[in-house]
Amino acid sequence: MKAFDYLVAHSLDAALAANDPAKVRLKAGGIDLIDLMKERLAPPGAPDVVLTIDRLDDLRGIRESDGGLLIGATTTLADVARSDLVKAKYRALWDVTAHAATPQVRERATVGGNLCQRPRCWYFRNAEFDCLKKGGPTCFAVEGESRYHAILGGGPCHIVHPSNLAPALVALDAQVLIRSARAGERRVAARDFFALPRDSMFREHTLDDGEIVTGVLLPTPPTQSAAIEFREKQSFDWPIAIAAVARHADGWRVALGAVAPVPWFSKPASDLLGNADVTLDLATRAGDAAASEARPMRDNAYKVQLVKVAVKRSLLAAAGLEVPK
Amino acid sequence: MMPTDPQNRVALENDGVRLDIVEKVTGRAKYTTDHYLPRMLHAAYIRSPFGRSKLVAEKLDAARAVKGVLEVEITKREGRYHGDRLGHVCAESPAALFEAMTALACEFEHDRPRTRLGVERTPRADLKPADNAAQADEALARSDAVVEVEYETQVQTHCCLEPHIVVVDFRGDSAIAYGSTQGTFSVRDDLARALQLPPDRVEFHCEYVGGGFGGKFGMGAEGELAARMSKKYARPCRVGCDRKEEQLDTGNRPGSLQYMKIGVARDGTIQGGHVATWGSVGPTGGGQASAGGGGGGGVRNPSRYKFGTIAKIHEDVSLNGGFPRAMRAPGHPQAMFAVELCMDALAAKVAMDPVEFRLHNEINELRKRMLREGAAMIGWSDRKPDGAWPGVIKRGYGVGVGDWGNGRGRATITVNLYRNGTVEVLSGAQDIGTGYRTLLADIVHTHLGIERERVVAKVGNSRYPVGPASGGSVTSRTVAPRAFNAAEMARQGLIKVVAKEWELPDASAVSFADGTFRAGDRSIDFARACRLMTEEMMTFTASEEGEFWKNPTGSEAVQFALVEVDTETGIIRVKKMIAIQEVGLPVNRNTVENQITGAVIQGLSFCLFEDRILNRQTGAMVNANMDQYKIAGPMDVPEIVPVIWRSREDAGVNSLGEPPIVPTAGAIGCAIANAIGAQVTSMPITPDKVLAAIAAKERAR
């Protein structure tokens, strides 16, 4: 790894002041950044300065706020999973957090880092592939090995978004809290926080230069919610499909993960459900609706089936009905 | 004889934990990577990024100008696989090395690589038929039913927790070196040649090794470069693979395609047929030695059952991928995946239970007993017909078999007795993580009847007596009788000391049992007896087995798998494995069970997860890391029941490293087929393949 300066931020203002996008990379848990740096992928190449924000106590913790819940950006996934409030009221978020990666990773990985991490696409992650996301001419997944790539929203790049928290946050109508030295604080709906490759090739979110995610705000708890992840391995693996569902006062939200370059809000499934009580038949039809938009690539048609089942089962789980285990 | 009989399970009654457990879990154990020597250089290879690459431009001057860089050399311009070594950089520090690699800014062109066995192989019809093809045709003609199917297994890379690494400190007329290896003396001899020193002038250390599995013999490409740089600059030099290099260029279990057309009679007797296998080898062919690997693509199919008349043909197929290298039971686990699935398909053709069908065609009487015992242990009677388990999550049961030929190597064991009562046992051979230290100490303390804590086992140093390389599962089997012999010599030596003290002209009047010497009404314990020694130390060395050689068994293995398959998602959970293993004389129960359990985990990981994936456009491996090269983790590991089976009281220590991995993938593959009612014929058995097999079955209805 290239040598770099390591700065420790002791206040949010100091972090914002030092966050020069030209040469500084932010680090919270470091799960994502260190991998990128080893592979010379943290643009521009390897950073000169790493600014760690994981000691900012202001950004850590879970507290009730305006009838909802505020989760600081440097709160670890393990802290979220240990929260009785999250488990009781925002089951969809708890489901994905409690089973992510491994216990060791969950103790380091943060909520903000989970949302801002770069894709795990094996073409992006390997310096040998000069892919679109690195300014190259082609997406290798189109002609190459695409078993873990997108079946929704792909093109011209076909990554899937790696965040497993994001679909739950979208289904829960969460907002992402953002700060910068220049523009102060702003809020954006989780649904609008992420960007498709056709709109934003080099970053997967809509942060401006110098902005830092400071937390997420969960609104009034839904009446029902759940999430289900499917993984090939049960330890330390990336999901191959996620569904997160939540029933709000005005109806259901269905969001999908690991199948699109962004956490995918499924309008067909959400519309079909409306604000209806879940039955096995309705859940099955919602799953079919969620999969109806899918355009699989050569190796990933199986994900269409996984989306159907993930949506169906997460609805059954949210409604307290029996789910095959 | 029941395998669960306690008398049977622990012949030497050693239940102790492995001797170096505290050192390992506290980090006190010093691995090669922990050796940072003063003024040490760091070197690494410049590697091909593609399967077939041509280096067209590089900035040699810029790389050489990086502060701290000693040399940058390009030795060839064409790469034949991702990771192929094209040159090297040697620098004062890892940071300078990294910077020089970046500054070198190599530019490559690439041609279409050969990445897929199925595409690049010679079609079966174009291969030279086996000499007995006509007889195989006759066997098929007299069969009542025929199974014709092709199985596929993937490339499994060597992926030890401790990557390949060598540190060489050349000192003019001698050298000290450290490395991660399965063969202390093979590395010493290689380094001696490379440094042009007599072997006794090279001191090689591998006190702790983080896994081997067949991929760590000789000094390797890492030792070659470290030796060259150390000699050239008269400074220590370290060359170690990072995770990516480890995946690309340290060898693999070759992939295979296995065509089987086998006939069976109505009574369940297999008649014979045709087997054609293809194995994936490196870019310059199979069966050749190379610093980064070597070895062929051979597949041990058919084996273990009476297959009748088989006409077998095989082709090694060159791909633009890293070379095969020996890997835990080379050629066997992939063969038994195909063999066991084929056995189940044949059993179904004649409507026989898979276990009954195996009993009918099994060549080995001991395995027949294991099959019956294992079936009872897994609850085989609960097994339902293929695909008939009710509900979405279906259970399946499967079985697989294996065995191993017990080879021998060379070994000398030294036992030192000290006046303070300490006993030292020395062997230069390496403990690759399997518990070799523990084996030696347990043999010596058990044979002398003294406390385990008195015995210090020292291994993994070329200054100690020569021992075998850990390949072919020979280490314990070769060493154990000699360790017994050396312990016996020490016992006799101390008896003489006691006899002299007691002024008995005939030493045989002194007995020694349970740590106490006795003659008539006199007795003295071991520690006091040691104090009678006139010298500080007495040394006993055995290069012979004496009376302690005991014939081995065949290291037979039978495993049963119980799986659950989610038929809506294709996700597989292995719930339980019964792993019955003939071990001959089990010296230490914990390490024996550990070997069996570890093999089952590795076999499960092979069956369900691991896969070297080469990009078809460029030949680059897309998952050369431990994130996307998937290896079974804790939550994927089922309940594993290792069953130590001892069929004969007079059997010696058997080979154990390899046999328990042979049946695993076959047993799990069969269990999955039983659950879903269709065979997934291609490994790794991932959800997409399970769903495809279920869909194909539905379509065929």
Notes on the protein architecture:
The complex is a heterodimer of chains A (325) and B (701). Chain A is of the alpha+beta class and 325 residues long. In chain A, 30% of the residues lie in helices and 20% in strands. Chain A is built from 13 helices and twelve strands. In chain A, strands 4-5-8-6-7 form a five-stranded antiparallel sheet. In chain A, a hairpin with a 2-residue loop joins β10 and β11. In chain A, α5 packs antiparallel against α9, α11 runs antiparallel to α12 and α12 packs antiparallel against α13. The termini of chain A are far apart. The model of chain A has no long low-confidence stretch (mean pLDDT 95). With 701 residues, chain B is an alpha+beta fold. A seven-stranded mixed sheet of chain B has the order 3-5-1-12-9-10-11, with helices on both faces. A four-stranded mixed sheet of chain B has the order 7-14-15-18. In chain B, strands 19-27-28-29 form a four-stranded mixed sheet. The longest helix of chain B has 27 residues. Chain B starts with 5 loop residues before the first helix and ends with a helix. The N terminus of chain B is likely disordered. The interface between A and B is large, with 41 and 43 residues.
